[in-house]
Amino acid sequence: MTLKIRIDDSAPPFEQVRAQISGQARSGALPVGYRLPTVRGLAESLGLAANTVAKAYRALETDGVIETRGRNGTFVAAAGPAAEREAASAAQAYAERVRRLGLNEDAALAAVRDALRAAFEQE
User: How far apart are CA 100 and CA 96, in angstroms?
Assistant: First the structure.
């Protein structure tokens, strides 16, 4: 696993760690089941505070990208049915919200495309 933190980047270091691990997991560069370094170990190798890496790991776990198995460590999670269910639930909530706001389908889809484009450009 190779991560690079850019001090001059507008994204905070924890977000850079989160985005890079997420991107590598999605691309397959980090395969399902890959054991990630400990929080302390990764923090030391990147020259970051342990709390910064811990914050990134918590966000990745919330997103379903990684899973912590107690003392066994932290691993890249299988992106599958659980992630798809969560995405479908979020999409349903979004659809209901834009309908209440009075947006038509084209406007709602344009907003999603813009948000996805912005999210994926950060990685």
Answer: 6
pLDDT tens figures, 79-118? 666 667 677 778 888 999 999 999 999 999 999 999 998 8
d(CA 53, CA 68): 14
Q: How far apart are the first and last CA of the chain?
A: 15
Q: Which residues of 90-111 are buried (b: 16+ CB within 10 A; e: fewer)?
A: eeeeeeeebeeeeeeeeebeee
Angle at 5 between CA 4 and CA 7, to 5 degrees: 145
**How many Å apart are CA 101 and CA 109, to the nearest integer?**
14
Question: Residue 61: which of 77, 50, 45 has the closest Cα?
Answer: 77
